[in-house]
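Write out the bound-state structure for uracil.
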Amino acid sequence: MLRLDKYLSDCGVGTRSEIKKLIRSGAVRVDGVNKATPDIKIDETSAIVYLNGQIIKYRKYVYLMLNKPQGYVSAVRDNYYKTVAELVPEEYKHFDVFPMGRLDIDTVGLLVLTNDGEMAHRLLSPTKHIPKKYIAEVDGRVGDSDIACFKSGMDLGDFTAKPAELRVIENTDLGCVAEVTIAEGKFHQIKRMFEKVGKKVLSLKRIQMNNLVLDETLKEGELRELTENELKLLSQENKHTKEENK
Ligand code: URA
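---
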């Protein structure tokens, strides 16, 4: 149960004082209630609330898929750099979303923004090894020994990376385009793994997180809400999380 003004504020209808005014002006009607006042308690799962005749559906959380462009840090505020929060359109601002995980400033691709702290915590917990898939362009040819190195779990000095999958998409004279799947998200992890096998990452794009795949129709810098099914794909238990938790 929620106060009516809190319900409308969670829905982003306005500030608490604007909402109080709206309710007092009679613009808000709640199904089955004679007189709506800011402090009446309503059941947010079943109440039907109208604002100027339009139904305002309750939701507390929002989940946005961003195709992150280069030049933005995965943070809500920063003293020097543009942040991914600046890419959030006005209609979602009141949700106070934050990035679920981090991509480097020069990494592009899939980044989920949400205000669901519990879900973010669950998916990012170090005990859950949510697989993340990237496309990397590197400056050398990738061979079987590199693939074996990634697979065996690499000692990167301050930590040993879990086995990662490296798959060549195209080896050329200039370098390689490869798909990499890692089970953690340590700082600069993929760049450091390639460095360890003598290669430099030239570009990096995340294309998948758990079973959620980047919508390639989103241009860099664009975002949209996850569908219900995509939300399930993102939070699905998978064989990695289960095995690791045994
Ligand atoms: N690994 C990196 O090196 N950078 C990223 O942004 C993500 C994974």
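---
The pocket of uracil is lined by residues 103-104, 107, 188-191, 204 (CB under 6 Å).
DSSP finds eight helices and 16 strands in the chain.
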